[in-house]
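[step 3/7] fold_predict: job queued, chain A
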Amino acid sequence: MSFNVFTWGANPVDFKGIPLGEQERSQMKQITRKRPLATEDIYALREQPDVALRVAAFLKRALGRTVELRESSGFLDPHVSIGGIEYSLFRDEGHGLRELVILLAAAYRDDWSTLLIDEPELHLHPAMARLWLGELRKECIERDRRAIIITHEPSLIKILDADELDSVWYFQAGAKPLPFADAVHERAKDRVTASLRQNPELISQLVFSPRPVLVEGVHDVAALSAALERTKPSEVVSQTDLVCCGGSTEVALWFEIAHKMEIDVRAIADLDACLESSVQRVMDGKSTVIHKYREELALEPPRTSNVLKPLIDKMRLDGISGNPKERANWLADSVPAATGYRVRKDKLLRIWRENGLWLHPQGTIEKVLGIDAKGLSAARTAASVPGEIDRVADWCSYEVDPLGEVELLLNVAVERIAHSIMEALRAEPAAQFCTPIGSSAEADSRLVRVEPIREGVHRLTVVTPKEFKGYWLEFSRETRPSELILQPPERVDLPGAES
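[step 4/7] structure written:
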């Protein structure tokens, strides 16, 4: 017996439901061995009443929808009702609710101990995905199960407590997978939790950003965003992700966590962050920093504490309290110059900048911006004109690949076309070419026009892109590679035009 298998959403009018006959079901199982489908989860709604009841209860409670299982002509055809309207789950409902029903059924089934789901967010509204994830988490906790979720959706990862970090593993090419919990000291858990409560998306920003930038708070984000938008191209701005940590001590904390997780980050904080032990541990663990300590600061042993101890002692003598802003201002303005401590401090800050940490030499972000107090409007307004904040923005901005420039890539392509013709000229010096040659000649002919100028000399003229149309390059077989540079179109003076 043959039958047609309709995937979800394909030919919805003809789709009658999931076949219930033993022969058809056997064939479905054979198909799913090669191409996994969700049919077993749908069958579970019929064959495990507790699964159907729990799915129905959840949908009613969370979405106000009622789900009823129906069988018609040998097919399982669930129906949905809401507000007096009734319709088929398979034929009339969108991808989202169908996907949610399947994922809920998979979670509630009693025949698994470890569940692996790849990208459950596909076809699901982020809010629905979070609803389902909450149910799955309860299943794992209450029934001692394990689930592995592979996701590219930042909104799925909202961590509010340090104890939840053991459920988040970070994978990257060429490195061992690591759980975030391994990067958190037991004594730092309360601070981590406080930071996560303030910014529940902190973890997702760390793992999904191309190169996250840790900052203290929303005022830093406002100022740096304004400076970046004013000074950098859009592709740089869109990939420079500013992550709020909560304060200078929290920036230091997450700077250490990120380095333990081998996440490439940059961090920006007020000057008092240099006194944080987490920053000192990161820097003392970097071979490049240790080398600079020995070479530029003549430190033995080369440890950060040896640079900072005289400053800390002097700060205590001056009666500076533990207030972060007061400490930052003292470090910026009151370090005695005659002792050489100021020079050593400036060298220390430069070494740290070269290794991913920018501490404001002026002390605080307010001093960088020239404002009296923090405020979103004041920070953005101050950063909307050129100033010291531009140096910070330039340092933290995402570095795009210079080979991504259209003009540079065009030069590379034209040089390649010229080299192909030069090779042919070496074999046949008198030859004249009117088109590109080689395996990519057809595609190259859409990019440039080839003209023989005189014996042994050819000109390539750019046809496209439009902004470079008319750019040209002349060459012979003796032309050196360094001379293969596109020239702008030659100016043609019209008769009577003023010189």
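[step 5/7] annotate
The chain has 20 helices and 17 strands.
Residues 182-396 form one domain.
exit 0
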